[in-house]
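Exam prep: given the inputs below (a chain plus zinc ion), describe the expected output before reading on.
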Amino acid sequence: MSLIDELDYYASVDRAIFDEEFADWLPRRIFDVHTHAWLPEHCLRPFAEERVGLVFEAESVSVPELEEAYSLLFPGRQVDYLAFGMPLTIIDREANNAYVGGNIDGQHRYGLLVPGLQDDAETLWAQIQAGGFSGFKPYLSYVTWKGIEEIRVRDFVTDAALEVAHAHGLIIMLHVPRNTRLPDPDNLADLEYIAAHYPNARVILAHGGRAYSRSLIERALGRVAVLPNMYFDFSVVQSAEVVEAICAHMPAGRVMYGSDIPVATVRGLLFMLNGQRVTLTRKPFPWSLSNPASPLKCTFMGYEQLRAMKRACDNLGWGPEQVNDLFYGTARALVDAATAAVRGG
Ligand SMILES: [Zn+2]
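Solution:
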């Protein structure tokens, strides 16, 4: 199976967009700090049984499928990456962690461990060292005893994971909860708590903190930018205003590229409409708006994200060196430091 279908459409629409808009701008090497990999046999139950809302079609992403997707999304580029499992209750978490760990080569392919909520610090550190992981990908889906909008960051980012990350300078890839997103007062308070108590943990706020509109991000950035261990990845962010606000306010070296594959391979567009998240797609899905009678001429959400990133960089006057840090250098340095701590520890 391939993550990217309609190859004639790819050649005439998607590839033409890449060649025209991104080929001269993107660096030769890219580091994707946010991508998923899991196999069909890791799925214990149907995706429809998961209560967390998902915006992709793939029911698995093997490592060969992931790397094939990179070759189509980023022709002529070398893509290194930080992968993690699909952190859902319908997935066999331990088998998925073992698959991701088995793929880590310490040169181009890195990984994060999806931790169990009950695991103590000693157990987590042993798992990190055994797999050569660079940190953790905790996720809210495992907090099954609360309403989804009631979940707080520290319900799923456990003290044990924070202790290990703090002790060894490891990465925590954090998807902030709630439809109120990054500016939610509880979310901001929890980030401040983590920064104060675990300052050596490297917290990446995934998807620009899920603040997909300017008004959302602007209400949060003043509080987040002063926390010295907070970073952002731009996976799924398709608003140039959001990327620009984050890049303008965060200190240098805190912003990174991420694809959130399989999301980046979906042809569509995601945006905020009066405070609600809306997805348009070429193919019809239960979670999107589409026109089955005459499919919309969409390109990859991953390319809509690149458009947003390019426009933001152009507006900020960022040259090749800053663009290279954004797409490669910052992530590379962060992952290298975490990985060296694990190997040396
Ligand atoms: Zn993700």
